[in-house]
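Researcher: Let's do a round of design. I'm pasting the structure tokens now; please hold your answer until I've finished.
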């Protein structure tokens, strides 16, 4: 199962929103299509297309280091930064644990390098800090994370040069 990683098209948004709703059901993390669209930048947001069906996505946007989007409102301002913030990564539940999320992250990391970003950041939610730590991200517990991300959410970042050395 390889699939095609490609940029998000207008026709993809309903499927992306449905994947997000399923992944975050019963949490405060669901943003809906409008919120998701506001956090997707051209060239740094992708879908995993498996035979014409969206099996996963990754959304990222330029954002100042040590800051992150507030889930309570859509983005209204374009940020100009040397940091790319990985806002959301979802793989369809039946396809998880097959390396598809890792493929999406690697694709995003290469796109970030190609566009000249120096760092990447994210907010680890739902106990995922160990996963991201093992992938070269380090926590910044001093960074403020809006309450909407849930208790235990941790802001993390990585230098893109360090990710390259680690083979990520």
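Researcher: That's everything. Go ahead.
Model: Designed sequence:
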């Amino acid at each position: 199962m390889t699939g095609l990683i490609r940029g998000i098209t207008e026709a993809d948004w309903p499927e992306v929103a449905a994947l997000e709703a399923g992944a975050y059901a019963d949490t405060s993390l669901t943003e809906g299509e409008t919120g998701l669209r506001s956090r997707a930048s051209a060239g740094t947001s992708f879908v995993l297309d498996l035979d014409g069906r969206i099996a996963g996505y990754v959304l990222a946007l330029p954002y100042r280091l040590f800051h992150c989007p507030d889930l309570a409102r859509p983005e209204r301002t374009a940020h100009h930064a040397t940091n790319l913030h990985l806002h959301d990564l979802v793989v369809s539940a039946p396809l998880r644990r097959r390396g598809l999320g890792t493929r999406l992250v690697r694709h995003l990391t290469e796109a970030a390098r190609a566009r000249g970003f120096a760092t990447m950041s994210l907010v680890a939610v739902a106990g995922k800090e160990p996963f991201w730590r093992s992938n070269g991200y380090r926590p910044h517990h001093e960074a403020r994370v809006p309450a909407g991300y849930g208790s235990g959410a941790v802001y993390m970042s990585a230098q893109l040069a360090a990710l390259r050395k680690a083979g990520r």
